[in-house]
What we know:
The protein is 42% helix and 14% strand. It is of the alpha/beta class.
Amino acid sequence: MTDNAQMDDLAKRARAVMPAGGFGNFDADFFIRSGSGSRVIDENGNEFIDYLISSGPMILGHGHDEVNAAVRAQLERGVTFFANNAAGIELAEVICEAVPCADQLRYVSTGGEADMYAMRLARAHTGRSKIMKFEGGYHGMSAEALMSLAPGRLQNFPRPVPDSAGIPETVEDGILVAPFNDAAFAESLIDEHGDDIAGIIVEPLQRLIPPAPGFLETLRAKADERGIVLIFDEVVTGFRLAYGGAQEAYGVTPDLCTLGKIIGGGMPLAAIAGREEIMRHFDKSAVGDEGFTFQIGTLSGNPLASVAGLKTLEILRRPGTYETLHALGKRLMAAMSDPLAAHGIAHQIVGSPVLFDVVFTGDPVMNYRDMMKGDKEQASIFNAAVREKGVLKPAAKLYPHLALSEEDLQQTEAAFAHAAEQVAARRNAA
């Protein structure tokens, strides 16, 4: 069977057994066969420099020798036990030492689970019912999280818009939605509803958008003032923005945070972490039946993911690691922006050196609605042209990582220059 035939066969088989022919993640027509270091190979045998990196976990690249060795050693001892294990305890100690808000943690398998439990903990701790979130913020797939994640129709704040069928109308009553980076609106909303708000959940860097000066500080101050649990969703930013995550990078400490992706070293693992007085709601002996928040998971804290995470975090702690990652990102940001600027193409590079993308607009991007103003056709042309040159770039963000070589960077720079030419050519032909 030829490579093309193999890809076509896989697509046909996927459509037969999976809705929309895929896992619901990346492009359903794209099949990855293998990954090594900075690169992946698709089922057609094409090689790409990988900036998707499994949507963030593979910060060291694919198949890191030290991580693989730790995983192989654990495989000999067992994969999962549905019981406490030394590796999971050690990883919890490392995370609690690194993350400012983390007195204790509880493991789950996915970031979405962690977000769901964090919101539930906030309700258990305060006895209140409402959750405040920000339009465009991603917090998994729970009913609460799928309120105003990516609304196709815009509605006046603070009314949420459900992003999925199957969500009861009653869920809407428990959610208040605000625009990201609007401190004044957040203050007024909290002043109006503060007695009903259990928690404020926010990505400190929302998808790509950094917080405006004073925004996170305002949320912290108002949460303190009204006895609200402040939750940072650090599933993406944890151990990426800095070793201590966004709360270290921005100097604002939440009451709870959620972690995932990097802490499992590429294996399914996530966690809720935070202040002991809130986390104790997971301990019935400490809070009694009325305050107890029930949580179990078959694979929670499994040793295979724990050893992968431990080795990954050990490597990230080595001197100069984050300096290197930020330097790589700054070079890639310039490589993306400079050729677009040379062609006079309106654009913004939005994000941080460790996580960013281009938005084709001349206006500043401060929130979800600003993102939606970007030229989607130009973005599509750019992304397709980049892939033509052997660079796998997700549609919505680019993840620099530590496996990138000088050859990778030069190839990426050439791909970005080619993509800018394609965008300019389409604009000039219009």
